TrEMBL record, chain A:
Alphabetical keyword list: Amino-acid transport, Cell membrane, Membrane, Transmembrane, Transmembrane helix, Transport
Protein name from the UniProt record: Branched-chain amino acid ABC transporter permease
Molecular function as annotated in GO: transmembrane transporter activity
Organism of origin: Neopusillimonas maritima
Keyword set includes Transport: yes
UniProt xrefs under InterPro entries: ABC_transp_permease, BCAA_transport_permease
Source organism superkingdom: Bacteria
UniProt-listed GO biological process terms: amino acid transport
Organism classification: Bacteria, Pseudomonadati, Pseudomonadota, Betaproteobacteria, Burkholderiales
Membrane topology: Multi-pass membrane protein
The UniProt record lists the keyword Cell membrane: yes
Location(s) in or outside the cell: Cell membrane
TrEMBL record, chain B:
One Gene Ontology CC term in the entry: plasma membrane
Database matches in InterPro entries: AAA+_ATPase, ABC_AA/LPS_Transport, ABC_transporter-like_ATP-bd, BCA_ABC_TP_C, P-loop_NTPase
Species classification: Bacteria, Pseudomonadati, Pseudomonadota, Betaproteobacteria, Burkholderiales
ABC transporter domain mapped to chain residues: 8-240
Full protein name: ABC transporter ATP-binding protein
From TrEMBL, chain C:
Biological classification of the source: Bacteria, Pseudomonadati, Pseudomonadota, Betaproteobacteria, Burkholderiales
Location relative to the cell: Cell membrane
Record's protein name: Branched-chain amino acid ABC transporter permease
One Gene Ontology molecular-function label: branched-chain amino acid transmembrane transporter activity
Keyword Lipoprotein part of the UniProt annotation: no
Amino acid sequence: MYSLYANVIAGGVLIGIVYALIALGLTIMFGVMRVVNFAHGELVVLGMYIGYLLWLSLDITPVMAVPLSAIIMFCVGYVLQIGLINRFIRRPHHAQFILFIGLALIITGIHMLVFGPDARSIADPSSFETYEVFGLRLDAVRLYGAAVALVMIALLLLFLRYSSTGSAIRAAADNQTGAQAIGLRVNRLYAVTAGIGVACAGVAGTLISPIFDTQPYLAGELTLLAFIIVIIGGMGSLMGALVGGILIGVSESVAALLINPAMKAMFSYGLMILVLLLRPQGLFGVKQR
Amino acid sequence: MSQPKPLLQVQGITKRFSGLTAVSQVSFDVPEGKIMGLIGPNGAGKTTCFQMIAGAMKPTQGSVVFDGRSLDGLNPEEICELGIARTFQVVRPLQEMTVLDNAMVGALLRAPSLDEARDLAASTLDQIGLGAKKDILAMHLTLPDRKMLELAKALATQPRLLLLDEVMAGLRPTEADEVIAVLRKLNGEGLTIVLVEHVMRILMSIADHVAVLHHGELITQGTPEAVTRDPRVIESYLGKGAKHGH
Amino acid sequence: MNNATTRMWGGLAIAFFAIMAFLPVVTSDSIIAVLTLIMMFAFFGQAWNLMMGYVGQLSLGHGLYIGLGAYACAVSVGTFGLSPWLGILIGAVISAVVGAFVAWLGFRFAVKGIYFTLLTIAVAELGRLSFENWSFVGGNAGYFLRVAQDTHPLLSLRGGTTFYYFCFLVLSILGFWGTALLIRSRLGYFWRAIREDEDAARAIGVRALRLKILAVMISAAMTSVGGSFYALLSGSLFPDTMMGMRFSIEIIIAPIIGGMGTLFGPIIGAFFVIPINEISNHAAQSMGIFGLNTLIYGVLILMVIVFLPDGIWPPVAKRIERWMKGGASS
């Protein structure tokens, strides 16, 4: 039975990396703009539909579709930020929440109108391949998904660390008013950040489109998943998103094997509640007032 | 014959934030019915002391005793019920409520019915000269009136001790004089007052006793005359040519 | 608000509810069914509004209390043979206690803003998952109430379309007047003060923690009563419909669009929201077009929160007030 557990855990790590990408998008928007994107899951699903559409029309695998998906979703995020979200940065939290609920409903409504409520799956032969790696049997889609997600995460980290825009974004994250005071064009930075955040969500969605069936109502679960990871890992912490994502991915896979899947969800929520109460900054976050 | 216990006894209060000591071992007593001034440059720790006395912040060390009773572990609303009311340095009116309603929230602490609270609130407002404006929304008031409203909210709770945090800041000399007159009247009726102020003129004219804070430490205390002549005070505070707001 | 204005609004409210009470005489059953839904969502909206509008805490987990009220009442009647009135009471008490506990946890551990909202979501989801796995209440397969025996509707609380319309109409009236009384009471002053500036309120003696918990308890109990009636009305209960996030979000759309923190807002909002739902369902069934209601709700919410953050009702109310004052002699 060793190999079964090992396979399951490995699979969990792989999907966890993609979850981490989802969480990363959420956490970066919070870390830089203090914006809580409750429509994040809907954006992931949008990425899923993009992957599905590109596969359907151009016959390209989701992995190949990632660059296009990333560009589209970046633009979506950029435009949303400039057009809409920017006015809400200084408004009270509940107003932001309501804004995103409205956005989420609109996105889901559009999905339903265009694609209908039924699930769509990508029945491509490549979806069923498996590889033998170090004695483990891994799904090709998960392997590719994790690999692309890792590349994207690495690119993001490099961008934040070494580019001038990236450094400016990090500065704005550390100190909102300070950044404005020294003349950084904050609005443009925020738009780029939103673009990145939404691109992460969208790419992750494209990567999971061959793994899970695409349907509008998946969005709610995905939003909550992203929040659980980000709360446990720490709001605004990139490391937290990565570690949290893998943690949740593994626990989800192991729990599905061992116990009732519903129990797994209860465990995640229970953990989130404990973190909210006792250590709201999560594993890696910084304590805020 | 032994003197009665002071109404307020501040005993060695200290407040440390990670790495920064805002207040260090501050002790002073305030006898009942007196007016005490707390003075010092910006950042000296005056507001932090008030926050510790009023329960908005817990002292890292030390304690506060009010009328013989320790205030350890009590929260702001409990301390207010015991009889200490405070105003905020940056005034915090209840914006979308009328002046009268603002005062009523305070009055409801003591008055058992809405009507009694209304009467108490109205008379408090009249006492400090805001009576005519009672139906105006707080957010439409001018700054001097907001300061008076801040005072009214606190007074409506019928405190025995009133903590005033720079209530005169931003007021013109004539307005400040009106406030001083009101405070004198209230003090005459038995209200004990501790006030934080920058402006020495005010403290000289109203305070019985002054304590001077600098860098979180109490460097001296005494009558206003004695304090203004103290070389340490002149050096650290007055010597900076501090003449705020005038 | 002076006495003349209060009397005017009171009069308008009475007129409105009188019309609503009279409507079943002149309309068909299918319209009454829609009106019942409107009244139900108006009532849920009033309950949620209490917590959001007056204490400023955004709860997205109110579905939990709907479910608790629904299951408590249904199980009391169906499994234990108790009177539904008792079931409603049991549900309300359970919900009040759960609400108080969650609120206490949140406030005591200083869980603020979005974290508090996430807490309400997590608790509601935990509740839903627990019920899905609890065979005693039927789990995922559902719990079903048997058809009513031949007893008087007021005893069994089972009846026809018109009966449930009046149930929810009465609830809405009670909710409206109860909320109005609460706002004008001591509690109302304290709650408004807490909403404006909690620290400033505490500095003048307002016992914020207790009062916020009380608001949550009342809101939860009210929601629970609505849930109980909903269970009696529908006869079949499933955890994911009763306690799901979908319901939690649906019940906040009306008060948000209508106007948070106002008395008429939730009712006006419900009059917008439910007909949209009906039109959308019709489009789905007859034309195969899905998601219209979701899309329209989203657009409406967006427009309200961007342009009319206080909701549709307050600007309309101001116009009405000015018009009435123009006509009245003073």
